[in-house]
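[job 0412] stage=fold_complex status=start
inputs:
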Amino acid sequence: MATSRRSLPLLRTLIAGKTQTRTVTYMPRPGDGAPRPVTLIPGDGIGPLVTNAVEQVMEAMHAPVYFEKYDVHGDMNRVPPEVMDSIRKNKVCLKGGLKTPMGGGVNSLNMQLRKELDLYASLVNCCNLPGLRTRHENVDIVVIRENTEGEYSGLEHEVVPGVVESLKVITKFCSERIAKYAFEYAYLNNRKKVTAVHKANIMKLADGLFLESCREVATKYPSIKYNEIIVDNCCMQLVSKPEQFDVMVTPNLYGNLVANTAAGIAGGTGVMPGGNVGAEYAVFEQGASAGNVGKEKMVEQKTANPVALLLSSAMMLRHLQFPSFADRLENAVKRVILEGQYRTKDLGGGSTTQEVVDAVIAKLD
Amino acid sequence: MATQLLRRVTQILSHGNPKPSSHISVARPFSSATETIRATLFPGDGIGPEIAESVKQVFKTADVPIEWEEHYVGDQVDPRTQSFLTWESLESVRRNRVGLKGPMATPIGKGHRSLNLTLRKELNLYANVRPCYSLPGYKTRYDDVNLITIRENTEGEYSGLEHQVVRGVVESLKIITRQASLRVAEYAFHYAKTHGRERVSAIHKANIMQKTDGLFLKCCREVAEKYPEITYEEVVIDNCCMMLVKNPALFDVLVMPNLYGDIISDLCAGLIGGLGLTPSCNIGEGGIALAEAVHGSAPDIAGKNMANPTALLLSSVSMLRHLNLHDKADRIQDAILNTIAEGKYRTADLGGTSTTTDFTKAICDHL
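[job 0412] stage=fold_complex status=done
writing structure:
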């Protein structure tokens, strides 16, 4: 009947939980709509699957980005120079996963990219998505992790046969700039608290230096609360009371663990967006990818979860200063999750990647 | 004459020096109700004495053949050990081969080693074992946790070797040796076998730290070959963290180097309800076992009869298992779990109103 037909879109918006808010305060500069090139690295394993998803959605939205695709695989020795040149030219890159092989010989390509482009901050946004039920509620944590030094410096050597040493390097320079980034992020995003994660009771000098830098920066932001927590206590609190954390700043290794734990409690690494950013370049990828890159079964059955990379590409659109496209993409993805009809296996559903992508495209307005 | 021979053999077996590389629990073939075992007890500070009293009471009611030797932490630094623990205390543990330790608060100050560090170094405690299982009756978000974390306790990132290279640049050394990794891997597989566990997972980050964690993994693989009936797998630590918070039932026995072990074992403790409910046991060379309660000394509730003795009780249960007194261990563990499951007697931290003594009495009644 006529009334029910008219109330259907209203009902749909009510179900979606958000009204079609169009921001009334976005005024672009002339020429802002010119298409921007973005380097795209599909990578290994599920990488090509999820980056293909992003390409499809960008096409459907007619987003002003075009991708320059490059083939890089985890077992290559170095990132090919033409890829690096492209990233340096475009300043923005979207990456699927690069599978780092176990064992000796090859330095992780992910680390290489981060060091060469000096992407010193890795950001993972872990928050409960509406509609996705998890064991923990009220999770809204941003993990900012130092990306270039710490335990992942790759400086190892065998002292005598059977004894191996690995160096963990912490510098004031890197600790200071990651602390500055964390507080700046909190300030720009209206966050109330920054927590530094450390193990300074055991590693007094190394993590002590990190904490000192954080404390110094904290004095410059008096309106933001600052506290410190030891990493093992932090993990314990994350699984019991995650609502006490807001923004967390950590050195390299702890950041990896905390980000994956926080992503796990908020719904899994398949849905958390994230990126690596430096002063000049930005590389967007799945927030906390916990080794799913090489899972062959996922690749064969095409059941990889594209949500994380889609949300990261929304982050990328915002970084490129296309806020309304970013909003549209983010809303569409959130609506698909809320409705719960198309979910991949890691979220408890049975859809394939393509089905989720089609659902997102259908929800774009 | 037969009894004399028996006694001689018992003496040889319990006093004989095992091989330095032996780490398997010294089997006490004649441990029966007639022979008492001496064990060292460090009540500790704060709530320590109260919960130690609980343990003694439960053991007495259960007729456990253990004779306690109590040692207290002094208030003067003993120059032989450079800490507040006296040489006599350490000798007592070395002699008795088993001990139970309550929470110890390291006094602040310089010129002495931390108490835990002293114990670890002097007794060569190389593995920290924490069984984590969901307590039926105490509801957390996770109901199906049943895993053991075994953490290498002597080296790794906690070697304490740091130095400042130039101003603003600090280096910290992480050391992995073949000997220590083999030792802890052997213990892990042995533990899995003797406790009927099916799977051992080695946790590592060998894709980034290729040589150090690679060596650890190599040692684990070598030991795994000797135990073909136990499934062995390797899991990257970030993957492990994520799987633990999503589905802890996936794991059985976890073996890991020092830093990862610290974080993962505390994470698992958080899954089951916190440090107040988690047992822990340190294994040393020659079969020494020092069970301990890993929570703090809680000076604010000390002396008020409000403390929860569960952690120390469960630790003492794991000590009994190490001594192969499995029937007693099972009885006490069942009593504890039933008391908590019933919900009538619970201490304040579990949401109840019972005192320590009431809780202990309830457990004794359940025995």
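[job 0412] summary: Residues 3 and 9 of chain B are 10 Å apart (CA to CA).
[job 0412] exit 0
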